[in-house]
Amino acid sequence: xxxxxxxxxxxxxxxxxxxIPLLLEQVSPVxxxxxxxxxxxxxxxxxxxxxSCIDLPPFDNSSMDGYAFRFxxxxxxxxxxxxxxxxxxxxxxxxxxxxxPNSCVRIMTGAPVPAGYDTVQMQEETQAxxxxxxxxxxxxxxxxxxxxxxxxxxxxxxxxxxxxIKAAELGVLATIGVSQVRVYRQxxxxxxxxxxxxxxxxxxxxxxQIYDSNRYSIQGLLSRANVExxxxxxxxxxxxxxxxxxxxxxxxxxxxxxxxxxxVGEADFTKQIxxxxxxxxxxxxxxxxxxxxxxxxxxxxVFCGLPGNPVSSMxxxxxxxxxxxxxxxxxxxxxxxxxxxxxxxPVRKQPGRVEYQRGILSRNAQxxxxxxxxxxxxxxxxxxxxxxxxxxxxxxxxxxxPAGTKVTVEPFNSVLx
Length: 417
What we know:
This protein has 417 residues and is α/β, with parallel strands linked by helices. It is 18% helix and 30% strand. It has helices spanning 16-25, 167-175, 214-224, 239-250, 270-277, 310-329, 383-387, and strands spanning 33-37, 50-51, 61-62, 66-69, 80-89, 103-107, 119-122, 126-129, 132-136, 145-146, 157-159, 180-184, 188-194, 198-199, 210-211, 228-235, 255-259, 279-283, 287-288, 294-298, 301-306, 339-343, 354-363, 369-373, 390-394, 406-411. Strands 7-4-6-5-9-8 form a 6-stranded mixed sheet, with no helix packed on it. The protein has a 6-stranded mixed sheet with strand order 16-13-17-21-20-18, sandwiched between helices. It has a 5-stranded mixed beta barrel with strand order 22-24-23-25-26. Helix 1 (16-25) crosses helix 6. The longest helix has 20 residues, at 310-329.
């Protein structure tokens, strides 16, 4: 049986994998930087390499609660040795006395190992009778001791420019005593929706009208992207209104992002106004949902035009706009995680465009990855995004796939999770 081609596909449409590098060539990272304190650094992009100004750990310390001693004092002819307790070492309050032969000190996790001692035995492997401590021999000298500089030596590069500062990086910076860091300034993104049919959430709907959901989805996506955003609302399908909105947005932002108006309908004026006010370099890709995607410039701002259908808008943001924002922020690019999983539900697809169907990825009783399609994959069904935790990637010219087929899945990252 022959398989019909996607009626929206065209031989001239570009594969998204080919388009993304070309899209990225058109943008440059911001060059402006600022210094922020650690509490304000979360989610920002580091603008310079950072080296440690101290050894880490800064002193030999214990990784266990127990007793510290000299390994050489252990009796090599027996399995345990009794040592004399001469003091204690606590975190922040180390032992300050002089060590003596065949002695030990009580030590807590993180406490300094007294100079001259080289080994710690955990408390569970000792027995105490007064100040006489029986040590069950550890396997080797240096057991349970975290040595000075074993994680980082002073001058070692800790973090590289171009990384996003997350919780772990904040902890690393605090550990080496860094109180403020130089980061790239945040991008500013202005966005609006176009369409006479769109009404604000909470208002009454007249026949033929719908609520404007895309702006809320875009706002959430931009918030996850750690940019400053400016919501310019809904702009009517009127050339002069759209022209004014473009000029206003471009004067305030690094990127202008629109939803709707990039199709081929008689009332879709975005492309017309951009041809007059700016420049479009991309229009339409072989992607489903989301074929009517546009990119260009308006003034000094980058322009990205998303489709009006809610799912198409989110998919094209995730697959196309997100990499552009990452580069503009100065982030080092990372390839998305791709996994192989077995379909538990059949998939319908017409050849012609790369499809990102919404799926639910899980493990079966055998620990194997499997994925189920969320249901109907219509580009207006936003609940399919809410139910999903991954995209099921279907290549451009493949057709239907029965249950049991191995497919490639892309788990959602922090932008959509």
